[in-house]
Design a protein that fits this description.
The complex is a heterodimer of chains A (about 270) and B (about 190).
Chain A: E1 8-11, E2 17-20, H1 31-40, E3 47-51, H2 59-67, E4 72-76, H3 79-86, E5 96-98, E6 104-106, H4 108-117, H5 129-157, H6 172-204, H7 217-227, H8 246-257, H9 259-268
Helix pairs in contact in A: 2-4, 2-7, 5-6, 5-7
Chain B: H1 2-14, E1 21-26, H2 33-41, E2 46-51, H3 56-59, E3 70-72, E4 78-80, H4 82-91, H5 103-128, H6 146-179
Parallel strand pairs in B: 1-2
Antiparallel strand pairs in B: 1-3, 3-4
The chains are: A alpha+beta (about 270), B alpha+beta (about 190).
């Protein structure tokens, strides 16, 4: 009935159910609709995602947007442009995401969650809270792993942040020995521990994705973090270091073969 | 729908009200305090279980991922990761303000949570260099010359105080000015 503002089912004497509907505009929008409104708007101004020309923290966001069928301008800021660009950013950091309405979103994990909310199938970041809290638990584990790796990253690239001499001042033999020790310790102890935790999630899900049957933003974030170690880009972290972890390798294969992810990666490999 | 988030969260955290929620952590604030506070603000009762450091060796293998905190729901499910717990507690706020379901606001909350994570990450070497120096490529505490150790800790912490802390306080100050309200996102407290 017009004028009413609630959805009611009314049973009369003959157990006939009369359902009244309220006008669509008074119902709170679903997560999916809200997220797609923010990310797509009227479709005229494209979403912008700005980051350096690397995967880094932005790749998980790019993948999630692709899986959620959200178009975006994938803008790469060259390192030589960063000096000038930095002071125009909100917090001196990238990535930054500019919504069609002009609002600037910071923090890759905020962007990842928003992209997940926009999945038309509602699976990337389920609104069922029992499922969502599991996704959040895995996202936390991914961050724990990044945290465990970080000293190994910094000891090579920014040793002064750890109290060592800066690279130009640190005697090379000592630097090399220190980097080797810290990274070998991670590969020997930290990596297997985390791979065991991720393997547990895979087994619990029945050997599908990390949180269950469907791909979620937890898989995307974990894939980016874990697959890094297969690349052989870090000294003393051999490409084969993940080989012992069969279930993790099979899961990575499932993630990368997901049709929308495969299609996104193919579109970039030009 | 916002009512549904609150109901779902309260159902998970309170259940039938017979079995209390349990939050287990060490006898410190650490990463659990934010969860304890959020549960209090959301009016979710819980057993605030403190594990003594001396009991940790026995407790650790019984945890899902060798870490605390762990949150045990009335239905027996175990939740890990303090930030997952913080978000769930926020969803349970009867006023729907701690972790608003309006997506435009929520993405701002997530942006600030990310910034907090960045600050924590910037501080971490300075924090742990004293406790676990070997993780950063130094000798263990037992082996490291005490004077060199103290000088290194001092150097790293002073660098944090000079460089990182003012930078992050600048970001939080900007957010407060922008919010036009009492808290980081406006007039309402959020997670």
């Amino acid at each position: 009935k017009s004028g009413q503002h609630s959805l009611e089912a009314v049973a009369d004497h003959t157990t006939q159910i009369i359902v009244t509907c309220l006008p669509h505009s008074t119902m709170p929008k679903s997560n999916i609709d809200q997220a797609r409104d923010l990310l797509i708007g009227d479709g005229k101004t494209p979403l912008k995602l700005e980051y350096f020309p690397i995967e880094g923290l932005a790749e998980q966001v790019r993948i999630a947007l692709a899986v959620a069928d959200v178009p975006f301008d994938d803008i790469r800021i060259g390192y030589d442009e960063w000096g000038e660009k930095k002071s125009t950013t909100r917090h001196g950091q990238l990535p930054e995401m500019t919504l069609p309405n002009g609002v600037v979103v910071t923090e890759s994990m905020a962007m990842l969650r928003l992209a997940g909310e926009a999945d038309p199938e509602g699976k990337l970041y389920p609104s069922d809270l029992a499922a969502r809290v599991k996704v959040e638990g895995i996202l936390g584990l991914v961050e724990d792993m990044a945290r465990a790796w970080r000293p190994s990253l910094f000891v090579f690239h920014r040793p002064e942040l750890l109290g060592h001499p800066s690279s130009d001042k640190w005697e090379n033999d000592i630097k090399v020995a220190t980097v080797k020790k810290v990274r070998s310790n991670f590969v020997d102890k930290g990596l297997p521990r985390f791979m065991e935790y991720f393997t547990n999630y895979i087994k619990e899900s029945g050997y599908k994705y990390l949180a269950g049957e469907d791909l979620t933003i937890a898989d995307i974030a974990a894939y980016q973090q874990i697959s890094y170690f297969k690349k052989g880009v870090a000294d003393y972290v051999p490409k084969v270091c993940l080989d012992p972890f069969m279930e993790v390798n099979e899961w990575m294969e499932r993630v990368i073969s997901h049709p929308k992810i495969a299609s996104y990666k193919a579109s970039k490999a030009k | 729908m916002s009512a549904s988030n609150i109901d779902q969260a309260r159902k998970l955290l309170i259940g039938d009200g017979i079995t209390p929620l349990k939050l287990e952590y060490f006898a410190i604030e650490g990463v659990a305090e934010q969860v304890r506070i959020a549960l209090a603000v959301a009016e979710v009762p819980f057993d605030d279980v403190r594990i003594g450091f001396s009991d940790w060796a026995v407790k650790k293998p019984t945890t899902k991922y060798g870490q605390l905190p762990e949150m045990i729901l009335p239905n027996g499910d175990v939740i890990t990761e303090s930030m997952a717990m913080l978000r769930l507690a926020g969803e349970a706020d009867p006023e729907g303000k701690l972790y608003p379901s309006d997506m435009a606001t929520r993405v701002k909350v997530e942006g600030v949570l990310g910034l907090v994570g960045d600050l924590s990450r910037a501080w971490r070497p300075a924090l742990y260099i004293g406790m676990r120096p070997e993780a950063f490529g130094y000798p263990t505490s037992a082996e490291w010359d005490k004077e060199v150790k103290d000088a290194t800790i001092k150097k790293v912490r002073e660098a944090f105080l000079s460089n990182e802390l003012p930078r992050y306080m600048g970001c939080f100050t900007d957010l407060l000015k922008e919010s036009g309200g009492k808290f980081l996102l406006g007039d309402d407290l959020t997670i």
